Amino acid sequence: MYDFVVIGGGPAGVAAGVYAARKRLKTVLIAETIGGQSTDSQDVQNWIGTPHISGMEMAKNLEKHLREYASDTLELIIGQRATSVTKADGGFTVTTPKASYTAKAVLVTTGGSRKKLEAVGAEQFENKGVTYCASCDGPIFSGQDVAVVGGGNAGFETAAQLLAYCKSVTLIHRSPEFLKADKATVDAVLAHPNMKTLVNVTPVEVKGAQFVNAISVKDNATGAITDIPVAAVFVEIGMIPATAPVKGVVDLDEWDKIKVDAKTQRTSTTGIWAAGDCSDGIYHQNNIAAGDAVKALEDIYFFIKAAK
Ligand SMILES: Cc1cc2nc3c(=O)[nH]c(=O)nc-3n(C[C@H](O)[C@H](O)[C@H](O)COP(=O)(O)OP(=O)(O)OC[C@H]3O[C@@H](n4cnc5c(N)ncnc54)[C@H](O)[C@@H]3O)c2cc1C
Fold this sequence. Notes:
The structure is a single chain. The chain is 23% helix and 28% strand. By secondary structure, the protein is an alpha/beta fold. It has 2 domains: 2-113 and 239-307, FAD/NAD(P)-binding domain; 116-235, FAD/NAD(P)-binding domain (3-Layer(bba) Sandwich), CATH 3.50.50. Strands 1, 2, 3, 4, 5, 6 and 17 form a 7-stranded mixed β-sheet that branches. A 5-stranded parallel β-sheet has the order 8-15-9-10-11, with helices on one face. Strands 12-13-14 form a 3-stranded antiparallel β-sheet, with no helix packed on it. The radius of gyration is 21 Å and the shape is elongated. The structure holds flavin-adenine dinucleotide (FAD). Flavin-adenine dinucleotide binds at residues 7-13, 30-33, 36-38, 40-41, 44, 46, 81-82, 109-112, 114, 132-133, 135-136, 242, 245, 276-277, 284-287, 289. The site of flavin-adenine dinucleotide (FAD) has 38 residues, from helix 1, strand 2, strand 7, helix 3 and helix 6.
């Protein structure tokens, strides 16, 4: 029996793996891949302590750090997907297509993927002006006109961030009203003189040459198409959390994210923790994912030691 299973190999999973090994917990880390979502990024500029690093290089560093500790206490199962977590005698069993691992505690760090913009050219211009991370790519478009697609809290928070340095921000929303965002945030963002909105419209095409230069939207009421000249399109239309292995085992929110206690990262089920983008934390960043996982690990350590 293991002390602890970590599921996931993004910044959250790797941070938990390193900390668990340093605390000499008998741990198994199961990850389909190591590196996480920002492996796709050309230049990560906010991984604290490292001003510039490509996502690929960051993934290599994460794996290197993990392998430093992979020895008698930390076992790495890389290239496999955990398919289920079930209750077992004295803990939980995590199953992959090849084996099962039983432990006293489980940390879920399976992250997720961003919902992609379904418009002509959106895929072609990804990383050429179409972006899914304002904190990562926003400063590149300083002084320029940009668009944000999405009228929920994430859309408004992204707009607020961009307004600090972009010439103008046009928020594009498919519904006539902003019912999914907090009124206070909406009012504060809309009060900014450089903020514009287009409501009840659907993005139909991202246009450009080498880089984005416009987004076309269709008015849902009239069908009229309008081109809005922008240098970048920030997409904030939601995330698809990879929480299928724990569905029915821990409480999920309406978007299938794992509900956690923000002080400890505990889920609704004693013995299971969650951290990073698969949890219901509002902000999605590498440093936050790693920090939340470390917080969970500290709590898990006391849980395991107290149970002895
Ligand atoms: C294109 C892009 C660029 C970004 N750039 C930045 C940036 O510059 N700075 C920044 O701070 N943030 C950035 N982000 C956000 C950041 O990448 C995420 O917040 C962060 O990766 C979340 O880490 P995580 O460990 O929670 O999950 P993830 O990074 O999603 O990692 C999840 C891990 O779990 C594994 N996994 C999933 N399901 C299973 C399963 N069932 N069994 C086993 N393994 C599983 C995956 O293979 C992966 O290793 C970016 C996001 C995107 C999409």
